Each structure stands twice: as structure tokens, then as C-alpha cells.
Amino acid sequence: MKVALLALILLLPSEFRLAVPGYEFAFPRDHGSHPAYRTEWWYYTGHLRTESGRRYGFELTFFRVGLVPQQEVAEEQGPPMSSTSRPPMSRWDLQSVYPAHFAITDVAAKDFRFYEKLNRGSVFTAGAAEGKLEVFNEAWKATTNPDGTWRLVAKEGKDSIDLTLRAVKPPAVHGQNGVSVKAQGIGFASHYYSMTRMEASGMVNGQKATGQAWMDHEFGSAALRESQQGWDWFSLQLDNDSELMLYIIRRTDGTPDETSSGSLITSDGSVIHLRRDQMRITPLKQWKSPKSGATYPMGWRVELPAFKVALRVRPLLEAQELVTHGSTQVTYWEGACDVSGSFGGSPVRGDGYVEMTGYDKAFRSP
After folding, report:
1. 117 strand-pairing partners
2. Residue 165 domain-assigned?
3. Residue of 75, 201, 254, 289 with fewest CB within 10 Å of its CB?
């Protein structure tokens, strides 16, 4: 479950495809762009350690917001439009806009720095290919190498990454019957999968580094409902080679929405769908942002009683908040975390990322 694009959705007549049951994923096709859907994101987070032992967390996110569906897509889903109602679209027409975020958590310096971009789609500014992973926003990019690995590149201010990512597990498809449901009603869902364990190697801030990364790719055409405030999302990579993706959608009255869910990915890559009633997530303390004034939970106990999972998730820094006035106009917390606890009666440790939205105000489209 990912942040920010929904705030840029324009209130146009909806000719975009809804995320409905029955979608069949295929790879590498679905690593690419899906312009039939209004919103899409490629979300990379990870933990890196340099040869000298310095530790970093990183986030690199590419968003696509469709403004006008491609004409051939619209015609596939309904009566064709006449030539007078919409002229043929060219590669230079404003079909999508592309925000992007890049953040570094410098653990030793106890510093968090983030950068943002917002560009129209064009061959010079930003774009995303169909059929394979080829996404860029100016000099930031996520691309496919000839050997099938991926390359992440971003440089801004005093921070930079140039990483090669190799998938250890196949894509983990979340939800059921091809959809990850976010609210009651037709289409209030997304098509959502993750690369939950990728070996990372390369450079961070000019130093050689290795670590592991996580990628979320999600596409759909619906926003949150009026009764929903925001969400808390967790990606946890454990040293027993299992992973957890969990999201709690918070209602405006503070209670968790019944559509909240998650996935447990086993050591062999199998995906177990988790219902809301199978998850217990308990905040342990709070932190008030001096920038936005929002008060966030800070530290969590995560329990899956049916699987004998009991974990403690601890942020590496409290101040890992992005206030994105220059791109998505959304304030959210996205931070690197340590994980410890037990799984099936055995001790485990791990790395994680947590995202929280809707704490400064309800997450809404304009």
C-alpha cells in the first residue's frame, strides 16, 4: 500500500480501468507501466552497510498519475470515441505526470534527508516503459540490466545511490484473486505485488555497500473512501528468510478498516494471505513532528498469533518524515527500522520499513 499519488488525481470522467478480481500477473511484463490505470508506483526501500560499517536506509520511489487514458485503452473498455471528441494522441501530449521521491537515512549521523521531483511525461523528463522495468525521472532511474538484474540510480544534494538488485525470490502477489482490497465497493482496490528480498550491491554516497532491498509495485484507479483517514504499512525482512507485508487502513474514527490485510512470505517464496483479524499491531510510543505538527506512532509490537509470530519494530530514527510540497503535496512518514522477536518459537531479527499517512490530515484527493 503506497503513498502520495492519490493526492494528484484530477476529477476527470473516469475512463481508466478499475482493479477488479481476476487479474493474472505475468512477469517481466507487469514490472512495466500500466497506462490503462490512473495511478501507479514503483517503490524501493532498503538497508545498506558500507565496507567501513556505516549504515544507511534508502527510499527511491517513482510515481505515475494518468491524466487522460490512452485512446486505444479507452476504446477497449467501451464505445470508441469519435475523432471530433478526442483527436489522436501523440507522444508529446500530456497523458501522465511523474512525481518521484528519494530519501536517505544516515544512521551514524542521525540524519534524514529527502528530495523530490515532479515532471510531465516525455522522452526527456520522465516516463515508464510497458512490458519491462524501465522507469526514469530526469537522472533518477530504475532499469533492467541485460542479465535480468535491476539497476537503481539517484543523485541529489549530498546523497547518491547506484545499486544493482538481484531478486532472491519470485514476485509475491498480495490480496486474493488478483486484487488487494482497500475499501468496500467495486474497484476500491489495486493490483499489487512485491519483490520482498533482493540482494543489493553498489555505491551509496561514494562508498561501496551491500545490503537488501524491497520493491512494491502497485497500480489501480481508486482513492480512499470518505470514511478512511490513512494507513500504516509495514515491510519486514527476517533472518529466517521469511518476510511480512502488512497494512492497516485507519478509519476517521481511529479504528482499523476491515479491509486491512497482509501477506506472509515463507522461506520458499510461498505467499499466505493474512486477514485483518489475524494481525495485531500495537503502537508503543509517539513522536510529534516539529515540521508538520503531526503526531505519529513510533515503535510497534506486531503479532500473528496463528503463526506464533511476535515482533518488535523499532525506528532507527524518529525524524524520517517527508513533507512533499514540491511534488505530491502529501506529508508522510517513511522510515528504516530494526526488527527483533520470535517466529514459531525461535528468535529472529531483521530489517524493515514503515510508512504512515493521514496523521497531519485525512488523506484525500482534491
Report:
1. 100
2. yes
3. 254
From first CA to last CA, the distance across the chain in angstroms is 20
State which residues form the domain around 346: 25-79+88-357
Q: What DSSP designation does 71 have?
A: H
In whole angstroms, give the CA distance from residue 92 to residue 121.
8
Query: pLDDT tens for residues 155-210?
Result: 999 999 999 999 999 999 999 999 998 888 887 889 999 999 999 999 999 999 99
| CATH code of residue 249 | 2.40.370.10
Are the beta carbons of 354 and 283 closer than 8 angstroms? no
Sign of the C-alpha dihedral, residues 30, 2, 180, 281?
positive
- Lowest mean pLDDT across 44-53, 79-88, 349-358: 79-88
DSSP annotation of 306 reads G
362 is a domain residue = no
| Average pLDDT score over residue span 240-246 | 98
Contact 101, 322 (CB under 8 A): yes
- Give how many domains the chain has, as a whole number: 1
- For 252, the 3-state DSSP assignment is coil
Q: Is residue 339 part of a domain?
A: yes
pTM above 0.70, yes or no: yes
4, 89, 363 from 65: Cα distances, Å: 10, 17, 16
Contact 191, 177 (CB under 8 A): no
- Residue entry with cell 520493491: 215
Q: Report the alpha-carbon distance of residue 142 to residue 217 in Å, rounded.
A: 12
SS3 118: strand
How far is residue 180's CA from residue 74's CA, in Å, rounded to a whole number?
23
Residue 9 inside a domain? The answer is no
